[in-house]
Design brief:
Preprotein translocase SecY subunit, two-stranded antiparallel sheet, mainly alpha, 5% strand
Amino acid sequence: MNKYLIVGIIVVVIIALLATNKKLVETLKNIYKIEELRKRILFTLGLLLIYRLGSFVVLPGVNHEALKAFTESFATGENANNLMGLLNIFSGGAFSQASIFALGVMPYITASIIIQLMGIMVPYFRKMQKEGESGRRKMNQWTRFLTIAVLILQAPAYLKTQIPGNAIIPEGGFVLTSTIILIAGTMFIMWLGEKITDKGIGNGISLIIMIGIVARLPHAFLQEIMVKLDGHGGSLIMLIVELVFLALVFMMTIALVQAVRKIPVQYAKRIVGNKQYGGVRQYIPLKLNAANVMPIIFAQALMFIPALISKDGAFTDIQGFWYNFTLAVLVIAFTYFYTAIIMNPQMMADEMKRNGGFIPGVKPGKSTVTYIDNIMTRITLPGSIFLAVVTILPALAMKIGVQPSFAYFYGGTSLLIMVGVVLDTLKQIESYLLMRHYDGLMKTGRIQGRY
């Protein structure tokens, strides 16, 4: 009883702190006054609710009791410590529940990565990228087709490896019908994401991924509290230390996501008719972590290969030294690789020269390309190392006694996705507020580092 009382007190304190925050209350009132923003937020919340409800709809022909026993192993058993448990976090629990949304948007992300890489290596897709809006629509169509192809391969593999035989009610055609349902489920999620992007607020696919991750946070947090209050996994003081450390990790991750190196660019004066153009100094913002979460996704995709080949080994235990060492090295390597793909110094220098701009003290042309490339190389090194540290933080948290389900929120893909999506969504909300001459979301009137 005391445990539940303490949990209740913590929840009440959090609600009280939020309710007494005058700035927050005033901001919510301003958001409600803007009709378009209010409708977009409600529309987004409604579609996210549909997604969460669908995550609890189990595939036809699955024994609920046997599945429940198997599901519990993802939270408390050895599966909580492997890569399948990590996939369960990303899907908001739908992966282990054999839901119609079990595969989530991961096949779509895989297809998007492949199409993006083909846009670099294949001339046909490279040309398509330069066709503007029509090219973007064609790329999206190719991504959808490739997503279906990925699903055709992943869905049967999921049914055979992640659903135990005693959980399947003997019926003919279970694999075929369930594969069709899983494909339809993922395509429906993609449709929800596109609708959120068009008529809601924020990026739809990113919000769906984030809501699946956040949905596991309350359960993981309560489980961590129970373990600490039992006396077997620590104490209340240890829990407070963990929460303080988690807050520090969030602050460091926000700093990583928003940190930029500004390169000054001076534009020459041009007089057209009676008007003067140029003659102002602007900046090229080079992000410390230009690759964002993609290096972690690439690295973890490679780390899944040994897990699929064999369930035993050094590369299947996410707390193991060799797993984390290899993962960190891959993250650093992919950070350089992906940054080189998306940031083209030659193109930046040509665009600058075309618009009459130059970097003070640097000659236009090859010297400008070399200057930008050197700065990118220098800032990518600390950014990649910091990203690698964030990637292995969950394993370090488990080592000091944090429960696996809660430790996933200390770093890795889940943390970067949450921080990035929240900042991007807040930026869009803030733009609506500032256009209506309201204060922004922060005391200074704008989100730090976003402008």
